């Protein structure tokens, strides 16, 4: 199945510019405050982007928890780590609706979760590559992403 969802992580590097996590060539600065954003495009509609920047490593941790929740209960909500922006997920049959502030979009559930999982794991691999001494910080979050089972329209597979 071809996903109509694309996900990419961007990190703010010293100097203030945002680069794709795969293009990082140096640590992002303070390992406790990794600023950046996650771009999520679903069905051609951007539901998260540059204006939704925050502590990107923590945001990926929040999203992991939310996906576990939405698979089990059908919905999950959180605020961004460092700003009052709400992120909501809702399972609607075989679809996943994502709302970030006023922007929302939906796509097929299983492929969306798979795409998010791949993007999150790629982000943490990229982060570990440029700050190897800090990789222990993200072990628990990586484990949450690895443990995320493929969902079905009715819950876990």
In words, what does this structure look like?
The structure is a single chain. With 157 residues, this protein is α+β, with helices and mostly antiparallel strands. It has a single domain, classed as 2-Layer Sandwich (Secreted effector protein pipB2 fold). The protein is built from three helices and eleven strands. The chain has helices at 56-73, 109-130, 139-147; strands at residues 5-12, 18-20, 35-42, 45-48, 54-55, 75-79, 86-92, 95-100, 103-108, 151-152, 155-156. The strands form three sheets. Strands 1, 2, 3, 4 and 5 form a five-stranded antiparallel sheet that branches. A four-stranded antiparallel sheet has the order 6-7-8-9. The protein has a two-stranded antiparallel ribbon with strand order 10-11. Helix 1 packs antiparallel against helix 2 (109-130). The protein is globular and about 40 Å long. The chain starts with a strand and ends with a strand. The model has no long low-confidence stretch (mean pLDDT 90).
């Amino acid at each position: 199945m071809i996903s109509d969802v694309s996900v990419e992580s961007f990190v703010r590097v010293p100097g203030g510019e945002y680069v794709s996590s795969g293009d990082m060539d140096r640590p992002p600065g303070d390992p406790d405050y990794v600023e950046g954003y996650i771009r999520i495009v679903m069905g051609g509609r951007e539901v998260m982007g540059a204006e939704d920047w925050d502590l990107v490593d923590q945001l990926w941790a929040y999203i992991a928890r939310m996906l576990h929740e939405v698979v089990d209960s059908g919905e999950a909500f959180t605020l961004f780590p460092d700003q009052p922006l709400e992120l909501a997920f809702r399972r609607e049959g075989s679809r996943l609706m994502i709302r970030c502030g006023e922007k929302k979009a939906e796509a097929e559930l299983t492929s969306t979760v798979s795409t998010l999982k791949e993007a999150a794991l790629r982000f943490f691999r990229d982060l570990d590559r440029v700050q190897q001494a800090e990789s222990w910080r993200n072990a628990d979050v990586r484990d949450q992403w690895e443990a995320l089972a493929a969902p079905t329209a009715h819950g876990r597979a």
